UniProtKB/TrEMBL annotation:
Gene3D superfamilies the UniProt entry points to: 3.40.50.2020
Keyword ATP-binding: yes
Sequence ranges assigned to domain Ribose-phosphate pyrophosphokinase N-terminal in this UniProt record: 5-120
Domain of life: Bacteria
Reaction equation(s) it catalyzes: D-ribose 5-phosphate + ATP = 5-phospho-alpha-D-ribose 1-diphosphate + AMP + H(+)
Pfam families registered for this protein in UniProt: Pribosyl_synth (PF14572), Pribosyltran_N (PF13793)
Database matches in SMART domains: Pribosyltran_N (SM01400)
Full protein name: ribose-phosphate diphosphokinase
Keywords, alphabetical: ATP-binding, Kinase, Nucleotide biosynthesis, Nucleotide-binding, Transferase
Amino acid sequence: MRDIAVFSGSAHRELATEICSHLEVPLHPVRTQRFANDCLEVQLQANCRERDVFLIQPLVRPVQENLVELLLMTDAARGASAGRITVVMPHYSYARSDKKDAPRISIGGRLVADLMVAAGADRVLAMTLHSPQVHGFFSVPVDHLHALRELAAHFRQYDLSNTTVVSPDLGNAKEAAHFARLLGVGVAAGAKQRFAEDKVQISSVIGEVAGRDVIVLDDEIAKGSTVLELLDRLRELGARSIRVACTHGLFSSGALKRIGDQPDVLEIVCTNTVPISADERGPKLKILSIAPALAEAMRRIHNGESVSALFDSP
C-alpha cells in the first residue's frame, strides 16, 4: 500500500490539523507565494512520488482565491508524480450553481468540477452537497458524506418526545426526513418561493408544529433570510421552542447575530466544515466537529475499504 500524504490549503488549516491528528499522520507544509502581478504559486513541501495524496480545502470566502490555490495544489501533486490525488472538499460553494434557471447563465458547479479533474484530481471527498445530484458533475469518483449523524448525536441529549424536524423547503425535505428518522421524531417542511438571493417567502408549513419543540434543519445558512422567514411562520403556528441546525455555517451579512437575537431561538448548531472566527461566534452557537468522519473516510479510501459503510453502521 502506498504511503499517505496530507496537505492543506489556506482556507481551513485548523480542520486539516484536526483530521491529521485523528489519522495520526503529519500535515505536510504548503508554501503559497503571491507574485507582483498578483499571480499565485504553490509548492507542496513534501515528497509526493507514488504516494496517496489528500488535499484538504473547503471553498469558502474568498472562494475564488481558495479555488485557484486548490487547483494549483492539485496540479503540483500531479506534476510531482503522486500515485493518486484525492481532493477533500468539506464545503463546495459552487454546488449551488447546479441548474440553468435563467437565460445565458453558467452552471458553475459543473464548470468547477471539470476544472478540478483537468488539474489532476482522481477522486473527490465532499460533505453535504447543496443537492445530491451535483456529484454527477464530476467525471471522477465522489464520496459524498453528510453530517446528520453528528447533528443527531448532539440533539439526543434533549427530551425529544415532543419534537418535530422542520425543513425550510421541500427540496431539503428528504434530508430532514432522514434526520427525523435518526432521532425518532416527526418531520415537517416549509413551502418556499425564492424571488431573489436574499428575498424568500414561505407561505405555509406542511406538517404539525403547533405546541412542538422544533429543530430547523438546512444544509447551509448564508444570509439567513430563509431561516428568519421560517421562524415567522413557526411563531404564527405556535411552535413551543426552536433550535436551528445546519452543516455549513457560512453566516454572511450578520446572519448569525440576526438569528441569535431571536428570543425564541434556543440554540444554533453547525459543523466546522467552514471556519468561524472567535469574534463572530455568539453565545447560542454550538460547533460540532466533522474531522473524525472525514478522517475515517480518508482512511477507508486509502485502505480500499467501503465508505458507504459509514452510513450503514448504527
